[in-house]
Amino acid sequence: MLTDAEEALVARTVLGAVDEVVTRGAFLSTVLERALKSVPDALREAVVLRCRAFVRRWRALAELMPTGSPGDRYAGLLALEGLGPTKRSLEAAFAKWLAVEAPVVRVARHAGLPDWLAARLVEQYGAADALALATALDRDAPTCVRANRLLTTRESLCVALAEFGPQPMALATDGLVLTGGVGVFQSAPFQRGEFEVQDEGSQLVAELVAPPPKGLVLDLCAGSGGKSLALAALLKGKGRVVATDVAEHKLDELRRRARRAQAGNVQILPYAEAEALIPKADRVLLDAPCSGTGALRRNPEARHHLKASDLARFATAQAELLARTVSALRPGGRVVYATCSVLREENEDVVATVAGVDVVPPKELWGRARATALTSSDGRFLQLLPHRHGTDGFFAAVLRRRA
Ligand SMILES: C[S@@+](CC[C@H](N)C(=O)[O-])C[C@H]1O[C@@H](n2cnc3c(N)ncnc32)[C@H](O)[C@@H]1O
Questions:
Q1: What pLDDT, in 10s, does the model give residues 279-313?
Q2: Burial of 309 (0-12, 13-18, 19+ CB in 10 A)
């Protein structure tokens, strides 16, 4: 329970941050980084969670309380989230608002999504599955970590992180879900490099790359290196993971993380030098820039920035990137094309644009028993969805260059 003074500070901070996101188009993570500096540690989680809830519920609050002041809407949010004194009339109006029959509007309202995105989900998944998917994307994501095999095991890490309530993941080999993750970055195992924070789906994409022992793997869209580090660990610190990104400044964070993880087999190269290695590589990972629709649990504000027209732009860039990579592969060489999008336009449709490759279905790498529950209905691709797998939404295709 917060005191009145704490509640007032939280409310002021949340309202200021949400105003910048919703009315001025700022990114919540950027706004929060600044705003949290003037909030005591003990109140930070409340601010972050309420900001996320506010951003998600914005559409409902704006439509149900069109003339309400920001303060009224905040009170409405507390009622809807069960955090404040209940306002029965608002709850009843909200329930009626949600009960609309038209499937697209229903999905949009339940999950606070723009209509164009709800329409695509309904078209691609059907009304019932789209509602379940959108609702799952609207929840907060659990804190997921990956035990760093270079320094520990999942079992030892489970003991070392006991105070955070670790549970072994059902799907990813080295993963733990923390039921209470607050403060985990200050923990001794983190400082010692014994784990990385990484969604279960992202861990599974790295597992699907399946580098051969001592192999050469290129990660051409490495960013801050979540998957590069997982690949380095899968290679047991041997072989080589060459990581690069067109935005080379992002690699600074990877450099720091690789040092902490003692991943001596990660080599960071300028983009052109890394790309020149494609013909020599055993595996290339293209974790392509995408709409991020699968990761809305972790970036809820992205729904306000994403436009329908962005999809075509992403798809064009993704197809170009994939074609360029495939054309440089040696015969038999493999590229793993991955996104954290749940939309066909960025996934199956992009894969369909490349010629001269065979799709390697996940069951060939993992066996039928493991792969079946994790693949698209035709079995050709890795398809992870939050309402089915509890992961962020991910897609991955393993493509082998024909001779
Ligand atoms: C999905 S993020 C990568 C996340 C990262 N692999 C991880 O696991 O943490 C996509 C990355 O692709 C990069 N990118 C954008 N356009 C690119 C291009 N044409 N070639 C290579 N990388 C690109 C972006 O800078 C971004 O870091």
A1: 999 999 999 999 999 999 999 889 888 999 999 99
A2: exposed
Domain 200-401 CATH class label: alpha beta
CB 44 within 8 A of CB 29: no
Q: Whose CA is nearest to atom 4 of ligand 1?
A: 223
CA–CA gap between residue 10 and residue 54 (Å, rounded)? 13
C-alpha closest to that of 316 among 340, 346, 272: 346
Q: Per-residue pLDDT for 331 more than 70?
A: yes
| Upper half-sphere CA count for residue 50 (Cβ side, 13 Å) | 27
Atom 26 of ligand 1, residue of closest alpha carbon? 223
245 lines ligand 1 (CB under 6 A): yes
pLDDT in tens, 356-374: 999 999 999 999 999 999 9
**Annotation: CATH topology of 145-197:** Alpha-Beta Plaits (3.30.70)
Ligand 1 centre distance from Cα of residue 339 (Å):
10
For residue range 113-134, list pLDDT tens digits in order. Answer: 999 999 999 999 999 999 999 9
Name the nearest CA neighbour of 103 among 131, 71, 136. Answer: 131
Establish whether residue 202 lines the binding site of ligand 1, counting it when its CB lies within 6 angstroms of any ligand atom: yes
What is the CA 73 to chain-centroid distance, rounded? 29
The Cβ of residue 58 has, within 10 Å, a number of other Cβ atoms equal to 21
Residues sharing a CB contact under 8 Å with residue 230, sequence separation 6 or more, in sequence order = 146, 174, 196, 198, 202, 203, 206, 207
**Cα separation of 304 and 24, whole Å?**
10
Following DSSP, what letter does each residue of 218-234 receive, concatenated? EETT-TT-HHHHHHHHH
Q: 3-state class of 384 per DSSP?
A: strand
**Closest ligand 1 atom, CA of 245?**
22
| Per-domain boundaries in the chain | 4-99, 102-138, 145-197, 200-401
Q: How far apart are CA 235 and CA 358, in angstroms?
A: 25
Q: Is the CB of 84 under 6 A from ligand 1?
A: no
